[in-house]
From TrEMBL:
Name of the protein in question: 5'-3' exoribonuclease
Keyword field contains rRNA-binding: no
InterPro entries: 5_3_exoribonuclease (IPR027073), Xrn1_helical (IPR041412), Xrn1_N (IPR004859), Xrn2/3/4 (IPR017151)
Gene that this sequence comes from: XRN2
Secretion signal span: none
EC number: 3.1.13.-
Superkingdom of origin: Eukaryota
Family: Belongs to the 5'-3' exonuclease family. XRN2/RAT1 subfamily.
Alphabetical UniProt keywords: Exonuclease, Hydrolase, mRNA processing, Nuclease, Nucleus
CDD domains with a match to the protein in the record: PIN_XRN1-2-like (cd18673)
CC annotations in GO: nucleus
Residue ranges constituting the Xrn1 N-terminal domain according to the UniProt record: 1-217
Domain called Xrn1 helical: residue spans: 256-663
GO biological process, one term: mRNA processing
Length: 741
């Protein structure tokens, strides 16, 4: 889940949470590339147990990069993904668990956002093609010459969705990649590698957290959390130090519990942005919404009588007090937002008239950003000089939140109801929050904070026993007709046939409401919501047309765990295959670093001493694998089990990093800040000449994967039979995120 502006706010407010990575590069000797030996100690001076990868953050930049030419074909995309994982692995060097999670079928609530993104991408692609064609015709009509237009195969990023052939092939390629690394890379020998591909329901980050939550529930699992997406570390342990300073409150009518206050802080952050609900109109991160919520929380908590959340359950009566306090400030928030916007215009105009700005690309123009109705003729904006925008009109805002009567106009414009319709407002508020595979927020817009009244008894129990969509059903729910080539022919016809009973789900054009924003990508795509019952009723008629391969792709899969031949769990798994037992078998936790779960035989397993065929022609086969794979299911708990949000007994808290507030009053000597993860790191002192050398030779590592390294013919992996000689630090609990810079 990516919340716009959240990371920027987090890193600016709490700067010490960021640590730049130390990355060891591979070397080349006599034309032969020598890869990094990941079995050696981590150059960041700390050893990590577990690495969890949300794979979609890797797949997208590797398949359609923004900073370099795109891969020529699908095989090159797979190689780029392998290289990216290699690079991340080289930096982190986990010693126990590597968990790769690809987005599977999403909950119904997230599908609305996915639908919006995919329809927008398709619309913008078509508009860009039309604009290019129009410009070519214009040049040719004026007597100009243009070379013949090359017909290039366009990569449709919509194929990165569960159920497509691309995602099915990716799962096969990752199984090969894991077997290759477990066979050839000594740094992988002690790992348990979990692959949760797109056939397993749930988003990648949700599957990761569910795995961690269920392992923690057994109270025997030692966890070091390390999430990655780019090449800086975000130290959550340091963020906890910041929050402890900020959230600690004295003279409360109940005992202060820091862990509970952190849970409340996380809960409040959901109101400013998430993938399932539109954020409240008065809460913008760029305007200090989180700081405002924390301030209100600390003011109101004396009246709430307790915390907002407990082990994932929300006390609505207390939340209402917070929302009502935000509601009191809404009028001033909207007025200040308008004042700031007016104040920024002269500066923006002055910048636009500068010589430098003449070379600025004007991405989304106002003309493009107007609300586009089905009969509109607006086209995607083209590159123009910045000063051209002076003559363009401001996008019309009919709500005018900064003027009196804003609530009436908002409900009339966005929902087509009167502000006095209390029943409808309660319906919107009631819909704002629920959790099941089937539930979704049935409106494009959020209510106001001031509308959260009498919500204590408003929300009912979640519907239990709901099932996710199948992969192909989700494709029908989120794809525009332009991406119908990823679907079976008769299914695709339902998107385009005028007589289709669900043709209204797939509009060729749709309106984009800027909703007070400046650019189209910030606006709200006014797409019709998919009626699940109508969709499934239509699909019942075309289900018999599926081939056996399509039926397989349309089924839900399982996680798979892989270990090397030298791993303690390998013999146990091999014995299960020899016994041909079709019953689930509990993992002996002592054989897998405390990991628990249930093992099931895989129908197409990777086995030791067996060959593994490469699904990528440019990569070699594995003649004799040293890996074994088997299906894995998380530990199961009784219905109603509560996963307690507490620090596990025996956890070792990392040393404090922030300077204590009373340091000057103590006699501890000068404060020595901690750089990196190791508090005992040896400090190096440089003279002026060394600083000059660093100034000329320094620079940040690029986020792009190293070019063409994995599949070069001169690649020779280091082969060793002994376990990696790494030295462990005493960090048994060291939580942090590794985020995009």
């Amino acid at each position: 889940m990516g919340v716009p502006a959240f990371f920027r706010w987090l890193s600016r407010k709490y700067p010490s949470i960021i640590v730049h990575c130390v990355e060891e590069k591979s070397k080349e000797c006599n034309g032969v590339r020598i890869p990094v030996d990941t079995s050696k100690p981590n150059p960041n001076e700390v050893e990590f147990d577990n690495l969890y990868l949300d794979m979609n953050g890797i797949i997208h930049p590797c398949t359609h990069p923004e900073d370099k030419p795109a891969p020529k074909n699908e095989d090159e995309m797979m190689v780029a993904i392998f290289e990216y994982i290699d690079r991340l692995f080289n930096i982190i060097r986990p010693r126990r668990v590597l968990y790769m999670a690809i987005d599977g079928v999403a909950p119904r609530a997230k599908m609305n956002q996915q639908r919006s993104r995919r329809f927008r991408a398709s619309k913008e692609g078509m508009e860009l093609t039309e604009e290019k064609h129009r410009m070519r015709e214009e040049v040719l009509q004026r007597g100009g010459y243009l070379p013949p237009e090359e017909i290039k195969e366009r990569f449709d990023s919509n194929c990165i969705t569960p159920g497509t052939e691309f995602m099915d092939n990716l799962a096969k390629c990752l199984r090969y990649y894991i077997a290759d690394r477990l066979t050839n890379d000594p740094g992988w020998r002690t790992l348990s590698v979990f692959l949760s591909d797109a056939s397993v329901p749930g988003e990648g980050e949700h599957k990761i957290m569910d795995f961690i939550r269920r392992q923690r529930g057994r109270l025997k699992f030692v966890i070091c959390l390390h999430f990655t997406s780019e090449f800086i570390f975000i130290r959550l342990c340091v963020l906890r130090e910041y929050l402890q300073r900020e959230l600690t409150m004295a003279s409360l009518p109940f005992p202060f519990n820091f862990e509970r206050s952190v849970d409340d802080w996380v809960f409040m952050c959901f109101f400013v942005g998430n993938d399932f609900l539109p954020h409240l109109p008065s809460l913008e991160i760029r305007e200090g919404a989180i700081d405002r919520l924390v301030s209100i929380y600390k003011d109101v908590v004396h009246r709430t009588g307790g915390y907002l959340t407990e082990n994932g359950f929300v006390n609505l009566e207390r939340v209402e007090l917070i929302m009502q306090a935000v509601g009191v400030a809404e009028d001033n928030i909207f007025k200040k937002r308008k004042e700031d916007e007016v104040r920024r215009r002269p500066a923006a105009a002055a910048q636009g008239n500068s010589p430098r700005s003449h070379f600025t690309v004007a991405g989304s123009r106002y003309q493009q950003n107007k609300v586009r109705c089905s009969d509109g003729v607006d086209r995607l904006g083209v590159k123009r000089k910045a000063e051209d925008s002076d003559s363009e009109p401001e996008p019309e805002d009919n709500v005018r939140l900064w003027e009196e009567g804003w609530k009436q106009r908002y409900y009339k414009t966005k929902f087509d109801v009167d502000e006095t319709d209390d029943d409808f407002r309660k319906k919107v508020v009631k819909s704002y929050g629920c959790a099941s595979w089937k539930w979704y927020f049935p409106f494009h817009y959020a209510p106001f904070a001031s509308d959260f009244k009498d919500i204590k008894d408003m929300f009912m129990e979640f519907e239990k026993g709901t099932k996710p969509f199948s992969p192909l059903e989700q494709l029908m729910g989120v794809f525009p007709a332009a991406s119908g080539n990823f679907l079976p022919p008769t299914w695709r016809a339902l998107m385009t046939d005028p007589d289709s009973s669900i043709i209204d789900f797939y509009p060729d054009d749709f309106a984009i409401d800027l909703n007070g924003k400046k650019y189209a990508w910030q606006g709200v795509a006014l797409l019709p919501f998919v009626d699940e019952r109508r969709l499934r009723a239509s699909l019942e008629k075309v289900y018999p047309d599926l081939t056996s391969e399509e039926v397989r792709r349309n089924s839900l899969g399982s996680d798979v765990v892989f270990v090397s031949k030298s791993h303690p769990l390998c013999d146990f798994i091999q014995e299960l295959y020899r016994s041909e037992s079709h019953e689930g078998t509990q993992i002996p936790p002592e054989l897998c670093h405390g990991t628990q779960g249930i093992l099931y035989l895989d129908q197409e397993p990777i086995l030791p001493d067996e060959p593994v065929e490469s699904p990528v022609p440019m990569l070699r086969d594995i003649p004799s694998s040293r890996a074994v794979g088997i299906k894995f299911k998380d530990p199961q708990y009784e219905e109603g089990h509560v996963f307690k949000a507490v620090i596990l007994p025996g956890a070792k808290i990392p040393s404090k990093v922030l300077k204590p507030g009373d340091w000057e009053k103590s006699s501890s000597g000068p404060w020595r800040p901690q750089l990196g993860f190791n508090p005992n790191r040896h400090q190096v002192h440089l003279d002026q000449s060394a600083f000059r050398a660093l100034g000329h030779g320094g620079g940040q590592y690029s986020s792009a994967p190293p070019p063409s390294s994995y599949h070069q013919g001169n690649y020779r992996p280091p082969l060793r039979d002994h376990p990696p000689p790494f030295q462990r630090e005493s960090h048994t609990l060291h939580p942090f995120w590794w985020f995009s810079a």
